[in-house]
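Input record, target 12 of the design panel.
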């Protein structure tokens, strides 16, 4: 003997199907937003921040070269007061260059970490994306077929006088 179905309301199944469809649309939109944010952040790190700190390192190198040239000129002219001022400028330029190089190194490190950590996490969502793209539509079709069959069964029960 085949097991009997105990369906109390086809409307509940229809509502569940509607909610499942809504869940799929919302989840897909959220996954798209996550992917776009991951891409924007990667671009910001790799292009904008890395480019900014590379330019800043070059600028600091030019400032240091200029300060060292000025100090060399002051030494050659044997101006003692100017030499101290020029040495301070060189020290300040070196400190700025070191800071810019440190920031560039941090950005490079973050780019590596981003690819290993964030991309890994995003790939973890691939299974869910696959479910949304492949399995959820199958579930929707299965529910639609079940609804059709139950409605047809209900109709045959009405015709034979068994319902009601």
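The sequence produced for target 12 reads:
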């Amino acid at each position: 003997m085949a097991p009997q179905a105990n369906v109390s309301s086809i409307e509940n199944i229809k509502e569940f199907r509607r909610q499942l469809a809504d869940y799929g649309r919302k989840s897909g939109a959220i996954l798209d937003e996550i992917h776009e944010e991951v891409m924007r952040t990667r671009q910001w790190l790799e292009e904008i921040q890395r480019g900014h700190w590379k330019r800043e390192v070059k600028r600091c190198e030019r400032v240091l070269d200029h300060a060292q040239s000025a100090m060399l000129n002051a030494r050659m002219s044997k101006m003692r007061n100017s030499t101290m001022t020029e040495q301070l400028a060189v020290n300040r330029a070196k400190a700025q260059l070191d800071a810019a190089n440190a920031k560039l190194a941090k950005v490079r490190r973050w780019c590596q970490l981003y690819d290993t950590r964030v991309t890994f996490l995003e790939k973890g969502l691939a299974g869910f994306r696959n479910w949304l793209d492949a399995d959820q539509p199958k579930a929707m079709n299965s529910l639609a077929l079940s609804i059709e069959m139950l409605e047809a069964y209900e109709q045959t029960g009405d015709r034979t006088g068994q319902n009601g």
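The mean pLDDT is 88.
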